[in-house]
Amino acid sequence: MNWYKKAQINNQYLYHGTSEGAFRKIREEGLIPNRGFIWFSKNIQYAKTYSERKGSNTAGIRVLRVLKTPDMLRDKRIIIPGDYITNRNIPPQEIEVLVENRWVPIQEYNNPNINIMPYFKENK
User: Fold this and answer.
1) Stated pTM of the model
2) Dihedral in degrees, nearest 10, Cα atoms 86, 88, 92, 94
3) 84: in domain
4) Residue-number span of the structural domain to which 41 is assigned
5) Would you say residue 11 has pLDDT above 70?
6) What is the C-alpha separation between 36 and 103, in angstroms, rounded?
7) How would you class 58 by CB atoms within 10 Å of its CB: exposed for 0-12, middle for 13-18, buried for 19 or more?
8) Exposure winner among 48, 66, 93, 107, fewest CB in 10 A?
9) Distances in Å between the alpha carbon of 86 and those of 17, 37, 62, 103, 118?
10) What is the CATH number of the domain that holds 82?
11) Running DSSP on this structure, what letter comes out for residue 114?
12) Is the pLDDT of residue 124 over 60?
């Protein structure tokens, strides 16, 4: 069994809080390392708090989740275990967003009130 299926079965998710502006870009491009890494937390509340601090509370908290993969390593700079980093680009197809207490694939999320419609890349 490959690691992706194993992670799905074990529900091994990590969370990422973000701003509204970054959220819109992530829907199109995925998560791209900033300063060399992408940071995640095992604690969803930490990701929610981070999103609120980034100013997302006006359009809703933007908490993302991804399956924990072998390339996601514990951030050893943090004394309390729970933070992870990766230097891998994470495509939108691997990302979900928390919407009204349920998880939705990020590219399927829509909210016409703030002009966000489902994002589907055209096949060329």
Assistant:
1) 0.79
2) -70
3) yes
4) 13-102
5) no
6) 27
7) exposed
8) 93
9) 15, 5, 20, 22, 27
10) 3.20.170.30
11) G
12) no
What amino acid occupies position 92? P
Q: Where are the alpha helices (DSSP H) in 11-95?
A: 20-29, 44-53
* Residue 37 pLDDT: 92
- Tokens in use for 81? 């275990």
Name residues whose C-beta falls within 8 Å of residue 120's C-beta, 6 or more positions apart in sequence.
107
Q: Is residue 120 part of a domain?
A: no
Q: What is the mean pLDDT of the chain?
A: 80
Give domain status of residue 80, yes or no.
yes
| Mean pLDDT (whole number) for 68-78 | 86
Q: Is 55 a residue whose pLDDT tops 80?
A: no
Q: For residue 64, what are its two tokens? A: 């993302």
Rounded Cα distance, 33 and 87, in Å: 6
93 within some domain: yes
